[in-house]
Amino acid sequence: MRDNNDMPGHLVRRFQQIAVAVFRAEAEAAGYDLTPVQYAALSAIGMNPGIDQVTLAGLIAYDRTTITGVVDRLVQKGLLARNPSRKDRRARELQITEEGMRTLQGVTPAVEAAQGVMLRGLTEEEREEFMRLLRKAITAGNELSRAPLREVSADEAKGS
Amino acid sequence: MRDNNDMPGHLVRRFQQIAVAVFRAEAEAAGYDLTPVQYAALSAIGMNPGIDQVTLAGLIAYDRTTITGVVDRLVQKGLLARNPSRKDRRARELQITEEGMRTLQGVTPAVEAAQGVMLRGLTEEEREEFMRLLRKAITAGNELSRAPLREVSADEAKGS
DNA sequence: GATAATTGATCAGTATGCTGATTATCAGTA
DNA sequence: TACTGATAATCAGCATACTGATCAATTATC
After folding, report:
1. B4-150 under CATH 2.40.160.10, yes or no
2. CB pairs under 8 A between A and B
3. Residue extents of the structural domains in chain A
């Protein structure tokens, strides 16, 4: 029987734990209380103002039911505004606030730094290769989780 | 600004989501209701009968407060027995039950299969390299999370 | 042997992440 | 127009993960 500790699923869980811990530590050191998930949402909304929650979920590969709570907390912190859409009364349009924009800009250096820390055991070439393999594996497995990445088509992106 | 979707932290989160989904799907297809975390705990206890919860946490890199709930649920399912230790009345000794052993043996092929599915986008060489890089990065970052791996020393292992 | 420091387990609280259901709304069709 | 199906958001419930605290028991120190 293979040692469970040496299975890819287990290794990934451990690296994910390290990645989250490093992210939070770097963000806190920079004076921000933001989780990786909250940062990703904030960043995506900043680049796509006015999107609804389902589109946001697809952009960053979140589960749709998880989004509600994440957005709740960002609204609570004053970093996002959530308003009913006039085009579709089921949907909520998400906008980043002034403070959200300042937070995003302020925390980004810490986020970049965190990526280096979590990969500190790898050389530059190894980091590139690691990310290439991650991208490749994720692309092949995208549809296997309930929260696949959904690229916004050119149609949706320009118009709406 | 770098696309958040292309940062290692984000890529790892997505791969972890896929890995968990694949694991659960394969386990369910084989007739078992077991999470990756529960499998890891069961497996570790099976190979180290009588260990306490802190040692278990170190063996598989869990947070000590998470272990309580995981063990609770495995005891609930009848796969584990948890008894107070006579050597240290603070500690609980964990034993795998007959049914736990049957479950472990029965589900293991599905667990092995899951590892292949989650890496289906990679060639055999790429899988090896991916795991090598994961191991290397984790080793370097082990102490950065609250749940580092703690190998059982020869001393502790033989005795008890 | 008394005291201090440490340790094993648990708990309260918070944040992802999932399954499956519900509600309101929208879109297509007979 | 009435009906059907699909969709956006939310909810209840469950399972990881973490922070920080508490309690009981053990170990170390004086």
Report:
1. no
2. 195
3. 4-151
A129, B133: Cβ pair inside 8 Å? Answer: yes
Q: Tell if the CB–CB gap between B15 and A61 is shorter than 8 Å.
A: no
Residue nearest to nucleotide C7 (CA to C1'): B90
Which residues in chain B are closer than 8 Å to A119, comparing Cβ atoms? 8, 137
Mean pLDDT (chain A, rounded) = 93
Of B8, B13, B146, the CB nearest to A115: B8
Nucleotide with the nearest C1' to B65 CA: C10
Answer whether CATH 1.10.10.10 is correct for domain A4-151. yes
Say if the Cβ atoms of A141 and B18 lie within 8 Å. yes
The whole-angstrom distance between B150's CA and the closest CA on chain A is: 12
Mean pLDDT of A106-123: 97
**Phi/psi of residue B43, each to 5°?**
-65, -45
Say whether B4 and A135 touch across the interface (CB within 8 A): no
Count of CA atoms in the C-beta half-sphere (13 A) of A125: 1
Q: What is the DSSP letter of A6?
A: G
End-to-end CA distance of chain A: 54
| The model's pTM | 0.93
Long-range contacts of B129-134 (CB under 8 A, 24+ apart): B129/A129, B129/A133, B130/A8, B130/A130, B130/A133, B130/A134, B130/A137, B131/A6, B131/A8, B131/A11, B133/A122, B133/A126, B133/A129, B133/A130, B133/A133, B134/A8, B134/A11, B134/A12, B134/A15, B134/A130
Tens digits of residue pLDDT in A6-37: 999 999 999 999 999 999 999 999 999 999 99
pLDDT tier, A155 (very low <50, low <70, confident <90, very high otherwise): very low
Question: Residue B159: helix, strand or coil by DSSP?
Answer: coil
Chain A: give the shortest CA distance to residue B90, in Å.
Answer: 27
Alpha carbon distances (Å) from A52 to A41, A63, A132, B16, B159: 12, 14, 30, 25, 59
